[in-house]
Amino acid sequence: MMSRRLGLTVFQRVYNYLKGARERQEDEGSIRQALSSLVERPSDGFEVDQLLYYEEQLQGSTSCCSPGPGLVT
Predict the structure, then answer these.
(1) What is the DSSP string of 2-71?
(2) Please, are residues 61 and 22 in contact by the beta-carbon 8 Å criterion?
(3) Does a structural domain hold residue 58?
């Protein structure tokens, strides 16, 4: 599991940074540079980024299918 390999503190830092960077639409170069100071292996940052992507996709798919106000399921 990613949080075990990185450690919970480092994982949380990378996760929070990437989430904010994606919301701010930072360029890939600055994201890579910031990640190099947070993790030893760039692939670790990439895996956390993939997790964020999948979370976003999951949230998008559940919001399109949830009943609106006044609808009974």
Answers:
(1) HHHHH-HHHHHHHHHHHHHHHHHT--HHHHHHHHHHH-SSHHHHHHHHHHHHHHHHHHHHHHHHS--TT-
(2) no
(3) no
pTM above 0.90, yes or no: no
Spacing of C-alpha 31 from chain mean position: 12
33: alpha, beta or left? (left if phi > 0; alpha if psi -120 to 50): alpha
Residue 5, amino acid:
R
pLDDT digits (tens, 9 = 90+) for 29-62: 999 999 999 999 888 999 999 999 999 899 887 6
Q: What total of structural domains would you count in the chain? A: 1
